[in-house]
Structure formats: structure tokens, C-alpha cells
Design goal:
single chain; 386 residues; alpha/beta; Rossmann fold; Rna Polymerase Sigma Factor, Chain: A; 3 domains; 7-stranded parallel sheet; 4-stranded mixed sheet; 15 helices; 11 strands; binds magnesium ion
Length: 386
């Protein structure tokens, strides 16, 4: 079998390193031809490049470019956001594990080149949804979600083939509930950064871990599900499931609910997105049924976790409102991580920023980028004036 070529944007992050685990487990099947990262973690990037020997290495930050040239003489080096985005067209599958809004360029480049996009970058669909939808119509351009919930939904939806999406009654996204599940709003008043970063089931980067603690991560995933699967917001529900074993469910029109279960291990959705419509041979996240004694489900607490409702509201408003919310959330989370904003201040800032959205329609990537920039400024103003 000719190996599938893989380009990996965000290679030194959590999704990137786990993608390399999958490639190591299936060496005959996959060959990494491009690696991309910020370039600030030189040692990690050089070690990856020396191991997988890609043709191209792209970095968004040029600070260490001379060192990279010296240590990776066999690789073509590309610099800047365009350099990173160019990876999208470089391989059969592009894994987009870039954190934050910067991932939009990679998404558009991969889809525009008619490649499969294994998408872990949520912001592409949340902020750039309308723009990404247009790029998705390029022949060959397809998205297979790497986010565990959406990957689960993608798997569940196959149960209605060939009738398709008309047979979907609702999508049920599961949420672990994060480290603060069960606490009231009053009990959340003085939680610390360390508290927020102590996720009970998933090991992820700091931004997404904070988003899990506020349930904003789930709110953004609701928008992501709407964009990916074209299901109305009224038919996308969230249920808290602390064990993170049921990764999401689809209820069909006949009342049947199909769920995807596995232990929380991102290598499963990564392998699924690489191999789809086939499956890899290496099992990740296998369940030991002798150890799994219960699966719990409860409704989310909207009062203690108002970010979930803010995301639904932004999604329903559509246009550039999700982009506006997403940008403000990145700023608010960064301020929280820096100690400049209380955890309970995150939804308060977002509420104030949402009130200042100006109704700009999402005509192009440039417009979305401008909306993102302005929302960040508005969020900084709100944080500074608290
Ligand atoms: Mg997720």
C-alpha cells in the first residue's frame, strides 16, 4: 500500500504530538511530509523533524529560523502564517492542530486545495464557519473532525446511511463537566488557575482546559456541530457525562440513539480522521468492561456556567457573532491565565463584549479576521475597565 501523506500543522502541541503517536503506530500506512508549529519550541520541533524527516517545516515565528536552517539542512523551511497555511496543500491529509484563530488559514488552504482536513482547530468552524463552508465545496475538500465529540457524531451518523441527515432527530454532545462540575456560582467565585487546569479526564492544552472549566468549550462545540453537520441549534443538546466514555450520541427519527464509546484518548479520533472511511488497526482507548462500573448523565447547570448559553445565543445569531465571541473568549481566557481576570469574570466580559457586536456580515476571510481583531480590542477594553 502506498503510504498516505500527512501534513501536520501545530506539530509540537497536544494534537500534534498525539498525531505522531498514531503515525508511529502505523508506520507502513502514513508518511509525514510537512510539520508546522509556532517555532518557539525549537528543541521539540527539531526532534520531530529529525525523526519523521519531512520535506517541509513551517514556522509562524521567525525568531529561531537560522538555528532551524542549521539543524535541519534537508528540510525546506517556510516562515509566517502563509508558510504554515501552505502545509494544507502539501499532503493527502492535513491535520490542523493549531491552537486558536490562527488555524483558519490552514483550514482554508487545505480545503481550497481539495485535500482532506483532519480538523482539531475549533476556531476554523466557529469563527470562520460561513467562509469555511464555501471552501468545503471544493472537489475533494472534506472535513473529518478530530474533536472527540464531533468525531463521535461523525461515526454515529453512519448508522443512518444511506438515508442521511434527514433521519437525525437530535445530536447529543457529551461534556465531562470539567473540574468544577457540581459547584454553584457562589462556590466558583475564587477558583484559581491551577484549579481550572486540573481537568478530571482529558489531558489538553491550557486554553482548551480553561474552556472546559467554563463549559465554553462545549458551547463552542455546539456551534462547531451546527456548522459541521448542518443540524439546527434546537436539535443540538448538551448532557454532562463525567466519565468521558460516551463521546457523543445521535438520536434518529425512529427513536434509536447511537453512541460512540471509548476511553478518553485523542489518538482514536486522530486515527479515525486519518483513515476514514477505513479504520486504523491499532486500538486506542479500548474499554476494560470489568473496570467500568457506571456511566452517569446529568443536565448542565446554566446558572453556574453561563458561557454555554452565551455560545448558543451567538450561534443562533450567526454571521460574525460566533467569531466575535470566540475572539473575546481567547482574550478573556488569556487574561484569566495571566491573573488579570477572575474565572467568574470570563462570562461577564463576554456578555459585555457580545452587546457591542456591530452586525458585520461574514463576507470573506479578511472580514472575519478584522472582526476577530476588533473583538479582541473590545474585550481588552472591557477587561481594563473592570
Ligand atoms: Mg471536544
Amino acid at each position: 500500500m502506498t503510504p498516505t501523506t500527512v501534513a501536520l500543522a501545530g506539530s509540537t502541541g497536544s494534537i500534534g504530538t498525539q498525531t505522531l503517536d498514531v503515525v508511529r503506530a502505523e508506520p507502513e500506512r502514513y508518511r509525514v511530509v510537512g510539520l508546522g508549529a509556532s517555532g518557539r519550541n525549537v528543541e521539540a520541533l527539531v526532534a520531530q523533524a529529525q525523526e519523521v524527516r519531512p520535506e517541509v517545516v513551517a514556522v509562524t515565528d521567525a525568531t529561531h529560523i537560522d538555528e532551524l536552517k542549521a539543524r535541519l539542512p534537508a528540510c525546506e523551511l517556510r516562515v509566517g502564517e502563509d508558510g504554515l497555511a501552505s502545509l494544507g496543500a502539501e499532503a493527502d491529509v492535513c491535520v490542523n492542530g493549531v491552537v486558536g484563530f490562527a488555524g483558519l488559514h490552514v483550514t482554508l488552504a487545505a480545503l481550497g486545495a481539495g485535500r482532506r482536513l483532519a480538523l482539531a482547530n475549533k476556531e476554523s468552524l466557529i469563527a470562520g464557519g460561513p467562509v469555511v463552508q464555501r471552501a468545503r465545496s471544493t472537489p475533494g475538500g472534506e472535513i473529518v473532525p478530530v474533536d472527540s465529540e464531533h468525531c463521535a457524531v461523525h461515526q454515529c451518523l453512519r448508522a443512518s446511511d444511506p438515508a442521511g441527515p434527514d433521519r437525525v432527530a437530535r445530536i447529543v454532545l457529551t461534556a465531562s463537566g470539567g473540574p468544577f462540575r457540581g459547584r454553584s456560582r457562589a462556590e466558583l467565585a475564587d477558583v484559581t488557575v491551577d484549579d481550572a487546569l486540573a481537568h478530571p479526564t482529558w489531558s489538553m492544552g491550557p486554553k482548551i482546559t480553561v474552556d472546559s472549566s467554563t463549559l465554553m468549550n462545549k458551547g463552542l462545540e455546539v456551534i462547531e456541530a451546527h456548522e459541521l453537520f448542518g443540524v439546527a441549534y434546537d436539535r443540538i443538546e448538551v448532557v454532562v457525562h463525567p466519565q468521558s466514555v460516551v463521546h457523543s450520541m445521535v438520536e434518529f427519527t425512529d427513536g434509536a440513539t447511537v453512541a460512540q464509546l471509548s476511553m478518553p484518548d485523542m489518538r482514536l479520533p486522530i486515527g479515525y480522521a486519518l483513515a476514514w472511511p477505513d479504520r486504523i488497526a491499532t486500538p486506542f482507548g479500548r474499554i476494560d468492561w470489568s473496570q467500568l462500573d457506571r456511566l452517569d448523565f446529568e443536565p448542565p447547570d446554566h446558572e453556574a456556567f453561563p458561557c454555554l448559553g452565551l455560545a448558543y445565543a451567538a450561534g443562533r445569531l450567526g454571521g460574525t457573532v460566533p467569531a466575535w465571541l470566540n475572539a473575546a473568549n481567547e482574550v478573556a481566557v488569556a487574561a484569566f491565565l495571566d491573573g488579570a481576570l477572575a474565572w467568574t469574570g470570563i462570562p461577564d466580559v463576554l456578555n459585555a463584549v457580545l452587546d457591542r457586536h456591530d452586525g458585520t456580515p461574514p463576507e470573506s476571510a479578511e472580514v472575519v479576521i478584522d472582526v476577530d481583531r476588533r473583538a479582541r480590542q473590545v474585550a481588552r477594553d472591557e477587561i481594563d475597565h473592570r
